[in-house]
Design goal:
- This protein is an alpha/beta fold.
- The chain has two domains: 168 residues, Beta Polymerase, domain 2 (2-Layer Sandwich), CATH 3.30.460; 124 residues, no CATH class.
- Helix 1 crosses helix 2 and helix 12 packs across helix 13.
- The radius of gyration is 33 Å and the shape is elongated.
């Protein structure tokens, strides 16, 4: 039985509205199913997105649409945006990647889908979004008593966060306001659209260049050309993946048959930079020239203890101390190192004096 609310629609549109009322629970189920599936397939594909959203059109909104153009719809099946989903990305080139992923598990109505990005003339800017009209395949989900769940079409919009911001702003200030916008304001809106489009392109370009840089760094690190690789967060992380301190750690741990507990060494990066290391080659050279001294110093420190667990930072810490001592910076240099590594503390002075004193009689201090 139809509800009393007719919104002033003709009989045909009222019939469509009643179809909507009966079908709304189905669209609500579809929304939850599809949101879960889309998030899962994007995660499986390794694509990080800003948001995956969905909404079922309200009755009032559908009534407004039917009032304007209800004659073009034979039934509710012809209204393709009762269920609307949106995937918001960070980068423009991810839009096509997401579309490719969705094409694998959804039925796409290509005739009614539209790529707004291709509609602009060379000298125009504005709304950019990729819209797919889809159906839910039975292979993904079906209900025996509700075949309409696989017949009903729905819309998925794919766009960037900046495109999404533009769309929301334009809807708020443009055609949905009910007021004709003066040309001066439209010109400013178009200028802003051009700026956002340029920003989107630059974000994607910068990401591509950074990824290319990281690949190049990885190739240089893998090839052993470390003197060509500047020391920074990405390069140091790649260097650590090669386990450059493992051999020395194992030698030191063998003194007490100790277990090595893995810890992050990334906090050594600013310390190494403060020690004026500028390339990975500088670290490799420290390993080459200071490993024996670091082993001797570590043996002196732990041989008379019963330590059976050592942090994986033991090698790098002793390498740095030996490097400082061989450079002639003594206890003052060690305190500076410890202050950078662990934060300023009066105890660092005592430790600096202790390490310098321990090293005085070790062979590496007297080697030519």
């Amino acid at each position: 039985m139809m509800k009393d609310i007719t919104y002033g629609l003709d009989l045909h549109c009222q019939m469509i509205l009643e179809e909507y009322r009966e079908s709304k629970p189905m669209f609500d189920r579809m929304k939850e199913i599809l949101l879960k599936k889309i998030r899962q397939v994007l995660s499986d594909a390794g694509i990080i997105v800003a948001a995956v959203e969905g909404r079922v059109k309200t009755e009032a909104s559908l009534a407004g649409k039917l009032e304007l153009k209800g004659s073009k719809y034979a039934s509710l099946d012809d209204v393709t945006d009762i269920l609307g989903l949106r995937v918001i990305t960070f980068y423009t080139d991810d839009v096509d990647k997401i579309a490719s992923v969705l094409e694998r598990f959804l039925e796409i109505d290509w005739e009614n889908s539209i790529d707004q990005r291709k509609l602009h003339k060379l000298n125009s800017f504005g709304y950019n979004s990729l819209h797919y009209i889809c159906r839910l395949p039975e292979a993904m989900y079906s209900e025996k008593d509700c075949p309409a769940v696989n017949r009903a079409r729905f819309e998925i919009q794919m766009r960037t966060a900046l495109q999404h911001a533009w769309a929301n702003m334009y809807h708020d200030t443009g055609y949905k306001s009910g007021v004709e916008i003066p040309e001066t304001y439209l010109r400013n809106l178009n200028r802003l659209a051009g700026m956002l489009e340029l920003a989107d392109e630059q974000f994607s370009r910068i990401r591509t260049e950074i990824n290319d840089y990281r690949r190049k760094v990885r190739e240089l690190v893998d090839s052993g050309n470390l003197e060509e690789v500047a020391l920074d967060g990405d390069t140091f992380r790649s260097f650590l993946s090669l386990k450059p301190f493992d051999n020395l750690n194992r030698r030191i741990a063998a003194v007490n048959q100790a277990e090595i507990q893995e810890v992050s060494l990334m906090h050594y990066l600013p310390v190494l930079k403060a020690m004026e290391f500028s390339t990975l080659g500088d670290i490799q050279e420290m390993i080459r020239t200071c490993s024996e001294g670091a082993y001797q110093l570590a043996c002196y420190q732990i041989s008379l203890t019963d330590l059976d667990i050592l942090a994986s930072s033991v090698a790098l810490q002793n390498l740095c101390i030996v490097y400082i001592l061989k450079k002639g910076h003594g206890a003052v240099g060690i305190r500076f190192f410890l202050d950078l590594l662990n934060g300023q503390s009066e105890s660092n002075q005592a430790l600096g004096d202790l390490y310098a004193a321990q090293a005085e009689d070790l062979p590496f201090m007297h080697a030519e």
